[in-house]
Amino acid sequence: MSDFDDARAWMVERQIVRRGVRDDYVIAAMRRVPREAFVPPDLRDFAYDDTPLPIGGEQSISQPFIVAKMLAAAELQPGDRVLDIGTGSGYAAALAAEIAGRVDSIERDASLAESARERLQRLGYENVEVHVGDGTVGLAAHAPYNAIIAAAGGPHVPQALRAQLAPGGRLVMPVGSSLNHQRLVKIVRRGEHDYDEQTLCDVRFVPLVGDDGWPEPRGASRANSRPAPTPTLEVAIRDAAEPLPDIDSPEFAGFIDRFAERRVVLLGEATHGTSEFYRARAAITRRLVERHGFSMIAVEADWPDAAIIDRHVRARPMPVERPRPFCRFPAWMWRNTDFMGFVAWLRSHNAAHREREIRFYGLDIYSLSESLDAVLHYLDSVDPAAARIARARFACLSPWQKDLAVYGRAALSGGYAQCEEHVVAQLVDLLKSRLDYAQKDGECPLDAALNSRLVAIARHYYRAMYYGDPQSWNLRETHMFDTLRLALDRHGSQARLVVWAHNSHIGDASATQMGREQDELNLGELCRAHFGDAAALIGFGTHSGTVAAASEWGGPMEVKSVLPSLEGSVEFSMHGTGLARFLLDLRPGVHDAARERLRVPLLERFIGVIYRPETDRDCHYAQASLAGQFDAFVWFDRTSAVTALPVSADEKDSTAQTFPFGV
Ligand code: SAH
Q: Does residue 660 have a cis bond before it (omega within 30 degrees)?
């Protein structure tokens, strides 16, 4: 059995069967058709990834799961006549040909059609004929069809296609008023003029361009701006929304009192560079500390860096080498004026309450940024092309982000996985020395077991960085959770903790596409499982404004415009309320009308340390059920970027007195 056979078997099991495709014909076909033969040679390593892949001409081969889902919905039977619209690579046509009697596949791009024809011939598919033409008008000469499937999304189902269905025939195609976001629709022809229609799920396909589809790309953008409001959701949100005063008002954080009895309050953020999210979390945390006895803060940052802040806020002596925390990419995440203000408050609070000092911890003990830096530096010296690709890949590191362009760039240099051994060796060294340092720190010794486990999983960690392997994401989340418990346990059963991390860590992953489809879990989900109602998960979101982010991993921080939220997204509905700031309490029994509506998965935006507005739609949205993810959600319609502090020791600035951020 070749590696590809193994990968294919695993893909079918994990991506197709586990996600509920039950059609035996489809499963058998997926097990047989070699997807690696349908992708460009340099992308073969990714052939069984859970993603579409570019095939040239701005087109893509569909994600395996979605092809399986469409074929199953089309209920293909042996002997059927099938019309496949949008041949592309020919992969879907080959799958259909494994099951059906005869397949006509139609492609508007003549060169794609030609290569698909050759490929299908070479692989021995004699029952497929590839035609060059406009699929929106079907193929009257060969009709009627028992099944029609379209791999491109149009504004509506073309009449010609309905007419070319045989009695009982099934048509499955993406339909939607937006170019990149559609509903997958299934139509069954019951009689001469009688069609059943149902929506299967939300999808994102390339546009169906033709006489009865979208116009040629140049003119297509107009169609994008057609509003498709969802008034009832907006109204439900507006009815439930509790308007909030300005963040600086003493009343702002009052809403958190309803969660004051919880043991762990987790505060999210929709980006890693928005001032309002930091200021709001600071105000909420102050209230939890001052009024409700919370005594620990843990953030999505490296343990050793956070340990320096912890010493500073408790006025403990610093190690002689005067470490400067948070100097590596993405430094602005913590080295910003809002966080500095919060640290100053913590220090003065602790000075005034020595008997009950607040502790500050970092949960992310992976030394993520430093390790990524090391990988990039190493690659810079041995293979600059691979380094460029690695930077691009890291930009989409988060499993919440998939960017086709990144796969595309892999074509620049084949075989960059060759560096793996060296890189892993580097990483292990690095982790060891960094963790040794933390281990020696008498104030905050790291748990030895965690430490050695970390080093042991360095390889996995590397794969997470390079390949986005979901199991590695789970390792990271589990480590964050283990560290959180370790910190809590140290402080006794009464200790209560506030956590600051990105929404992707905090919103219960089981209520998201990543959790459901890829078995990804996260800190919020683990906290719910462990603490039950004693954990509160609170998300934060925004419609537009500015954000601090980089364009690629390790790149300079830029202040970027946040594109207005995508129509159809949960943010778009919140924006539709017309309110500048509000709280949405999503606990059962509080606002059940809104809660029920927000249980339905919608697109939700995730902006990390990398934000590329040009890939906003494709790279930064995922499906999630907001009411399943969070106990409450805090909304700021317009937000602005954090103000970063200088990183370099040479940059003389006025922060000298603001140690630990100054030099
Ligand atoms: N099923 C393909 C996916 C191809 S992507 C695969 O498995 O590889 C969609 C394809 O639809 C693109 O190749 C695009 O060129 C084609 N397309 C778009 N509009 C079309 C139209 N009106 N008629 C035929 N093909 C079309």
A: yes
> Helical H runs in 353-383?
368-382
Judge whether residue 112 has pLDDT over 80. Answer: yes
CATH class of 236-653: alpha beta
**437: Cβ–Cβ under 8 A, 6 or more apart, which residues?**
304
Q: Please choose from 82, 85, 125 the residue to mutate so as to test ligand 1's pocket, defined by most ligand atoms within 8 A of CB.
A: 85
Q: Are strands 581-585 and 535-549 parallel, antiparallel or unpaired?
A: unpaired
Q: d(Cα 408, Cα 60) in Å, to the nearest integer?
A: 10
DSSP-derived letter for residue 194 is: E
pLDDT of res. 441: 55
Instruction: Name the residue with the closest Cα to ligand 1, atom 26.
Output: 86
In the set 2, 60, 62, 369, the catalytic residue is 62
Asked if 275 contacts 247 with a C-beta cutoff of 8 angstroms, the reply is: no
Tell me which fold the domain 3-203 belongs to: Rossmann fold (3.40.50)
Each domain of the chain, given as residue ranges in start order, spans: 3-203, 236-653
Residue 87 Cα to ligand 1 midpoint, Å, equals 5
- Ligand 1 is surrounded, with C-beta below 6 A, by 59-62, 85-86, 88-89, 91-92, 106-109, 112, 134-136, 151-152, 206, 208-210, 213
- The pair of three-digit structure tokens given for residue 451, joined into one six-digit string: 């430490």
Choosing from 51, 66, 132, 208 the residue with most ligand 1 atoms within 8 A of its CB, the one to mutate for a pocket test is: 208
pLDDT tens, residue by residue, 148-183: 999 999 999 999 999 999 999 999 999 987 665 688
Answer whether 0.85 is exceeded by the pTM: no
**What is the distance between the alpha carbons of residues 338 and 341, in angstroms, rounded to a whole number?**
5
- Cα→Cα distances 470→17, 66, 104, 238, 363, Å: 18, 19, 37, 36, 19
The residue assigned the tokens 């074929």 is 71
| CA 187 / ligand 1 centre spacing (Å) | 20
Active site residue 371: no
Of ligand 1's listed atoms, the one at least distance from the Cα of 134 is: 23
